[in-house]
Amino acid sequence: MAKAARVAGTLVSADIDNIYEGLPGLLPLIDILISSKSFPHKLTGISDERTSLVELKARYGCVVVGVTVGTRGAMIYCNGQFFESPAYEIPEGCRDTTGAGDAFHAGFLYGLLRGEDVETALKLANATAALKCRDLGARAALPSRTELEEFIKVAKTL
Fold first, then answer.
1. Which of 42, 46, 53, 68 could cross-link 77 (Cys pair, CB 3.0–4.6 Å)?
2. In terms of domains, do 132 and 158 share one?
3. Are residues 100 and 155 in the same domain?
4. What is the mean pLDDT of the chain?
5. Alpha-helical runs (H) found in the chain
6. pTM of the predicted protein model
7. Which residue in 147, 153, 158, 134 sits closest to 73, CA to CA?
């Protein structure tokens, strides 16, 4: 699918957390690779987050590489720059983190597809993930566009 998407001129985004057969052939086809905190270290052997992201980009050519770091938020490396965005406080506390990573990725892609810069897309991603955690299940508390925009205006970061 990644090859077909690349041929069609579509951006390819992936959330990969484990090393598996065929991964070295897939990674050069990915434009946006945002993984969990531990993946870049697993793949590169480099424990420093920033250095491992630079190495991922150098090895595989992804346009955007990044990591989610739980309550610390997320970090992106793109165009030779690092962008960091803190996590947001979850309204009324966290009920369930199931699907938070997927919500984060959806928020990030939503921002990019709207034409936002990487830093704004990162904020949208963290806000989407925080709002998702308000309720049980992966989709129950996903925000509407209006709700997401209002939340960002008033939300507190961790």
1. 53
2. yes
3. yes
4. 94
5. 2-7, 23-26, 39-44, 49-60, 100-113, 118-132, 145-154
6. 0.92
7. 158
Report pLDDT for 140. 85
Half-sphere exposure of 118 (CA within 13 A, CB side): 17
Kindly state the average pLDDT of the residues 97-123: 95
Q: 40-74 burial by CB neighbour count: b if 16+ within 10 A, else e?
A: beebbeeeebeebbbbbbeebebebbbbbeeeebb
Query: Is-contact 56 40, C-beta < 8 A?
Result: yes
Closest CA to 135 of 85, 102, 77, 96: 96
Distances (CA, A) of 138 to 26, 63, 95, 96, 132: 27, 28, 11, 8, 7
Q: Tell me how far apart the alpha carbons of residues 108 and 7 are, in angstroms, rounded to a whole number.
A: 23
Q: Is the pLDDT of residue 80 over 90?
A: yes
Number of helical H runs and strand E runs in the chain = 7, 5
Domain C-terminal end among 21, 41, 68: 68
Structure-token match 């830093």, residue found: 119
